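User: I'm curious whether this sequence folds into something compact or stays loose and floppy. Could you predict its structure so I can see for myself?
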Amino acid sequence: MSGSTTTTTVVCPSEEIYGEHSEKAELLRYFHDNVLSQTPEGQELIRLYYKWSAMIVTAMEGNEEFKKEVEEMINEILLLIEGEVE
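Assistant: Here's the prediction. I'll summarize afterward.
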């Protein structure tokens, strides 16, 4: 009997929209690593993000309107982050 393995790749919604090495994705990673991860509230947001990100990406792949809505939300978050980082 041969075993099978499955690999699940969790894609980040922001990487799906902007690209893995985009400036926006890098800023979000910086915020994740240096701000959110430093507090219990931020750690909970990170946990929820990992719980839902794959489903969000899957939904974006089948629905351009939803993808635009997610992009608009992320852009609003980026504006807030940019104000904090500067």
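Summary: The chain has a mean pLDDT of 87. The chain has four helices and no strands.
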